[in-house]
Amino acid sequence: MEAVFALCRPSNALRRLALIILLSLPIFALAAVGALAAQDHVQGRRAALVIGNSAYVNLPKLPNSVNDAKRIGEVLRNANFEVTIGSDLTKAGLEKTVREFLQTLNDGDVALFYYSGHAVQVADQNFIIPVDANLSSAYDLEVESYNVTSLLDYMRATSGLQILVLDACRDNPFRNEYYYLGDSKVDVGGKQGLASLTPKQGSLIVYSTAPDQVAYDGGGDLSPFAGALADNLLSPNKEVREMLTLVRNAVMQRTGGRQVPWDVSSLTSQFYFVSAQEVLMLGESVTEVRVSPDATRVRLDIQPPIASKGLQLTASFEKLPKAGMLLLDDKTIQPNQPIDAQRMGDIVYVSDPGQKSVELLPYKIESNTGQKANGAVAIVFDPAIPQQPDTSLQVASNDDGESVTKAVPINLTLNADVGTGFKPVPALELGAGGRPTGWFRLEQRDPSAQVAVGDELLMLGDLVKAEDLPKVKIRPAIHRSNEEAQVVLTPAVVVPESKPVVIKVEAQVNACDELAAQPLDIQAVTEGVLPNDIDVPKAEAACRKAVADFPEIPRFKFQYGRVLYAKGEYQTALKMLREALDGGHVRAGQIVARLYQLGAGVELAPEKAIPPLEAAARRGDPYAQHTLGKALLEGNGVRRDVRRGLELLQKAVESGHTYALNQLGGEYLSGARVPKDVERAYVIFEKSAERGDVWGAVNLGLMYRDGVFVKQDKQRAYQLFEEANRNLHPYAATLMAALDKQEGRKDEAGLLALYRESAARGDGWGAFYAAEIVSTQPSLAKDPDEAIRLYGLAVARKSGKASEGAKARLKAVPAERLARESQKALVRMGAQGIEVDGKLGPRVRAAAAEILGRKPPSGMLDLYADLVQQEWIASTPRLDML
Length: 882
Hints:
882 residues, alpha+beta, Immunoglobulin-like, six-stranded mixed β-sheet, 38% helix, 18% strand, cysteine-type endopeptidase activity
């Protein structure tokens, strides 16, 4: 279900019904109601992404957008959202911030996105514009913006309810009359404002102004819409449509009717941003005050009622005393006169002269929402109590007027790893400072911690029964780790024995996350490290422990699988990755899918790659979107669908996956599946290279090498190839060698070193050229078998003519020699009981089946190529580079 303005708590009607039942129970039953068993899932978890872009470099600046975002972020934190906030974001910063937001959505209930800044509509879609966007080229929109619909789709896939608020309908920032979007050329002349999106069932989308109209920044610190939204969003127990009506009226008033907020709704249920508790009860139904018969002024000391925060309470006495009067601030209280319920303890009884026994004074408490509670105060005149000096109206205080006696709090410390869910406060620790009693109020909650009791989130001001304090659990925010947060629960009624509970939350990132998370993983909690940067010994120990400590969290299994792969324990790594996939970790699915496409450690079955890729792409995983998009373009394991393939690549580009940029550029450069557009390819490759992507550097280098669209510049091309090679591009070294050979800069030994470098990274051409040199100059070989191994790798890598040439060379090798090389490969990979005799009997084929994890090919040459490929994979190359 989708909604844009979300309900995370029960409806008012349900809560009131529950309170009627609650208040009708005897006091001993209240503890049972509050002691319901905690569930693993906490209802109503909320996450929000709030972005404000003001300081545009190439477009008109927007003075208030950052202020708008900051204010809305503060309000949403008070509404129990874990807020990811971004200000003045570049395209790279936008990608990172969106990714951090998606990381907070896992298993959440409510997702909200608020954006203030430049945004534009193209082809009935809305695009967020980062502050470094230029939009000067017709090709810039697709690489410099972010599609709002994409983000809404990811929110829908990872949460139960979605909220979309766009305060972004400023003046048209376009600098061209048309832009390219996918395979379409779109005219944008005269466009302003945003397009109205059609909501799905159960959704609500809110705009700061009507479709195709312009919103105003305003003359104050906030835009008219942001100010009105901030003023009304926290209104307790107001259904969202009622709240939006208040916002709409406020904006119209502030803009003289020139701006009218707009919403598109297909809601099927009510939603409340703040569904506040409405609990009212008395700590003591009868307050007894025993005094001397000679007492003339008596402070009643009636405890204030226990009530949910936000309720406005009044008290009234149904009748006056028989022998005396009631005073508040020396003013007489009349029957049924409403007074502030919090002042009940300040009421003074003034006695008439004469003998008295008991004064029974009934009173009632009423809230502004209709709750009622009845109580009474009994003044007992006891002859056994001697006349005392009248000190009942005095309160000991220090020089600042504060009470001298302060309750010593019960201090607790909760240690938690971020991204591991809610962690309960240990019940035994609660007894260290004395067992609390009565009711407690959530008085303070740091924005970096969400608090729950059982399966329900607590809002500030909510009440908790003391018996339920051991059921309190806390979830530290993912992206405010390594910071101390504090949660404070204070007694609802302050009595001498009452003590507040102060919980210090010390959150940290698990060592497995720090050492083995993968970049761009939308279910990670850190930015991640590349495969070649993993510190294997440390990461292995940390991730093994994390998997043992948190077996229910698939993220740790995925990261442990990465470490095992880096260590070379391939089959164990594959097992761990599959367990992570089964647990719902989508990046694990992308990697397993890639292995099926490569036939690496599993059967070559590209059709089996499609289901996990589809699941991961829906969640917004850019790696999966790139891999699936490429498969759809090529018809690899799935029916070819060029349009959808391009759409998926574009989504990956939005999220910062530069490989997708290069795939798009390659499509437009070749023109095989889309209309050829060399200028568009150049713009895309240049953007990729600017982001430090190795493929972008190589593709741009090829255009300079060949003089395609740009003036030929082989020196510039070589520099780009060198840069890519330093960053482990699989065949940049082969391209360098080709230029070196052409210019006569290196001898055969120098060229061989470059070819070997590319071959080790999986480049079939590098393997073929290296084999050719070693075959003709055996003195340069590492060993007598190197040329055959390199030819085998060139065949296995399926590199077109390079593979065909290598296959021709291997066909000339005697069968017995090739069989011996296959046996040597098996022995190197740990096969037992293999005799290198050139005979491929049942034992050899059984060993090959175990090593390959499938039935081996029957042909000698194919078997050898598969074994060489498996041995290459066991060397842990960067498969993500291919």
